[in-house]
Write a structure and sequence with these properties.
Elements lengths: L1 E6 L5 H12 L2 E3 L9 H6 L1 H25 L4 E4 L2 H14 L5 H15 L7 E6 L2 H11 L9 H17 L4 E6 L9 H15 L4
Parallel strand pairs: 1-3, 1-4, 2-3, 4-5
Length: 204
Amino acid sequence: MHIAIAGNIGAGKTTLTKLLSKHYKFEAHYEDVVENPYLDDFYGQMERWSFNLQVYFLNSRFRQILEIHNTKKHVIQDRTIYEDAHIFAPNLHAMGLMTHRDFQNYSSLFELMESLVKGPDLLIYLRSSIPNLVEQIHKRGREYENSISIDYLSRLNERYEAWIQQYSKGKLLIIDVNDLNFVDNPEDLGIIVEQIDGQLNGLF
């Protein structure tokens, strides 16, 4: 069983991955932000480091998916390989922060990798408003995220919504997190678990 959690920066993917892996006793696979050697440079100079960062994430997530497919364990994954290719890289290209040549190269690499893997059994999309994202980003206090603009988050949100409307890799569960506090309120986490259980009943 492979569950993946998707959503914009600050939507709560990592936290929910942690809570759900504990609840379901699934193995958690997290996004590589601690060891990523490009993040600080990227947020300081996006145009210079955008291609490097996206290729690093693509490589990291492809390896992660191969590990997930090779294990017989149930897994919850924090962010998917599709988000980089359908949201982050195209957004950087559209903003003039990734050259057309680099974007074509990146897209070709993604298409090759995508042909070798399958989508998650269940994708959970965390839908969030911009004010909520900003609040969560400030709350966690990652220094390299201080320069993220509201315009950048808004562009990403628009692309997320467009991608989700077209998503067809497997089962999809959309959760609006604007009025949910699943960190401090067990009842809110229970609401999410109940919705997931409804999806999982048809998968096991």
